[in-house]
Specification:
alpha+beta, 3-stranded mixed beta sheet, two-stranded antiparallel sheet, 5 helices
Length: 196
């Protein structure tokens, strides 16, 4: 019942369905879709406003179209932003800007450059297409073979299997600053124990 509201647009019926879409009716009577009213989701125990993250990145450069999504699987939740721009842009500059404008939970663990804006059959942005690209990336990382000789190499491979969504991890990187929690720390310790 709460999904139905009084129809203030036409006299076809008394009630209409509330979709949480934003839009307006143009002079020709066509409905112009602007996006969702709210895209607030829970990420690692904290609520994040995906629309706000997209706005922050668009504020960095008006030439960027940003699309925030959260990738989830059994072991991880990752904030990912797909960006589309026809101009050359340095992703590290975007991260540097976000660190001055946003809380750490709002800084994406991965920014993916899109070749085109993915849309579905009705012309809306298809964020699921961004997630499909991420799932393909994840499959490219496998756990280390125990027969590998170099200890450092084994550890690096284990970290890459856990942080597959980050392209460049330095040796001094903080596990928790990269969006992980204590339960995941126990999982990586278990992987290290199994490898050695």
């Amino acid at each position: 019942a709460t999904s139905f509201v009084k129809n203030t647009v036409s006299n076809v019926s008394e009630k209409m369905y509330k979709t949480n879409d934003r839009g307006y009716m143009d002079e020709s009577g066509n409905i112009v879709f602007l996006g969702r009213l709210s895209r607030i989701e829970k990420l690692n125990g904290t609520f994040v406003d995906l629309d706000n993250i997209e706005r922050l990145i668009s504020n960095f450069s008006k030439n960027i179209k940003a699309y925030a999504v959260i990738y989830r699987d059994a072991s991880v939740s990752v904030l990912i932003v797909g960006i589309y721009t026809q101009n050359e842009i340095n992703i590290r500059d975007v991260y540097t800007y976000l660190k001055t404008q946003a809380s750490s939970i709002q800084i994406p663990q991965l920014i993916v450059r899109l070749d085109a804006i993915p849309v579905n059959g009705s012309g809306k942005v298809c964020r699921k297409a961004i997630l499909k690209d991420i799932q393909i990336r994840q499959k490219n990382f496998a756990l280390v073979d125990a027969g590998e000789a170099d200890v450092k190499s084994k550890l690096k491979t284990i970290w890459r299997s856990v942080f597959w969504f980050i392209e460049d991890i330095g040796e001094q990187a903080s596990f928790f600053d990269l969006g992980r929690n204590s339960l995941q720390a126990m999982q990586i310790i278990n992987m290290i124990n199994n490898a050695f």
